[in-house]
Write a structure and sequence with these properties.
This protein is α/β, with parallel strands linked by helices and about 290 residues long. It is about 45% helix and about 15% strand.
Length: about 290
């Protein structure tokens, strides 16, 4: 049996992203989404989340490219010292270097993750799962405190950011070769990840597909992913949205690709493709 969770990241980023996620659930194949507690369209996302009964909503934990929910003083090792308003570091590189060199406090990570989950729960969201912006929990230094926070808050599941990647599928996309190499190296951490999640008594999938293709997803790549999906339960990561004026104010490399993904996710041909492959769509609520 092949089961697939289709999760839309960045719920709460902008109103256009929120609208696209809801449309992708109502009219398309999206079954789950993760909401940013510090997103600029948080309140709008909460309104959508509380009315979209089919959508399983988790927390999109942000530790880079944003501001801590706790405030800079309580998350001092997570905050960029050059930032006047206590923002996180921009981009994964600087944060990852600090984390692996022991300059990020695990208790601060746990506290910030807890604050973000509690903010969603206080707004009426039954948080079904966790993932992280830029997949920071691929690092063990982030994963361990994140799992502690999840257990304390009663969140049952977490994204498994590791998964199979076929270079033959990406051969036509030179812009993705560098990311393929990076993901291939990071996949060596997959075994440790699975052991840590099991030790924490939490749930996860067999892995994730679509991460390498982020920003370049099209009909060919999606069909290749579906056709090569192994047996088991997997998650497909997507980022639907509207490329509008509000998105222009956001620091993100994903712009036109969000609109293209929206078309893909809501196309009847996409659902037909999954049906022909015998792939069952489930949500993170079903996993739990």
């Amino acid at each position: 049996m092949r089961r697939l969770i289709v999760n839309a990241d960045d719920f709460g980023l902008t109103r256009g992203v929120n609208r696209a996620i809801v449309e992708s659930s109502r009219d398309g194949i999206v079954t789950s989404s993760t909401l940013m507690a510090n997103g600029q369209a948080f309140e709008d996302a909460i309104a959508h989340a509380n009315s979209a009964s089919r959508l399983s909503v988790g927390c999109h934990v942000v530790l880079v490219d944003g501001s801590p929910v706790l405030g800079g003083q309580q998350a001092s090792t997570l905050s960029d010292k050059k930032s006047k308003d206590g923002r996180f570091y921009d981009g994964l590189g600087a944060f990852a270097l600090r984390a692996v060199s022991g300059r990020v406090d695990a208790d601060e990570i746990e506290g910030e993750v807890t604050a973000q989950i509690r903010k969603l729960q206080s707004a009426g969201v039954s948080v079904s799962h966790l993932d992280t912006h830029k997949h920071t929990h691929i690092l063990p230094q982030v994963l361990w405190p994140l799992l502690r926070a999840a257990r304390a808050c009663g969140v049952p599941a977490v994204r498994n950011p590791f998964g199979p990647v076929r270079f033959s599928v990406l051969a036509k996309y030179p812009s993705l070769w560098k990311r393929y190499s990076q993901v291939t190296v990071l996949n060596r951490l997959g075994g440790r990840f699975r052991n840590s999640v099991a030790d924490a008594g939490m749930l996860t999938t067999d892995g994730t597909v679509g991460i390498v293709s982020t920003g370049a997803m099209d009909d060919y790549l999606f069909a290749s992913i579906v056709e090569s999906l192994p047996e088991g339960t997997w998650e497909f990561v997507c980022h639907p949205g509207y490329n509008d004026n509000e998105l222009d104010s956001i620091r993100t490399r994903l712009r036109q690709s969000r609109a293209l993904e929206l078309q893909l996710l809501t196309s009847p041909k996409t659902r037909e493709l999954l049906g022909r492959g015998g792939i069952q769509l489930i949500s993170y609520r079903d996993l739990a």
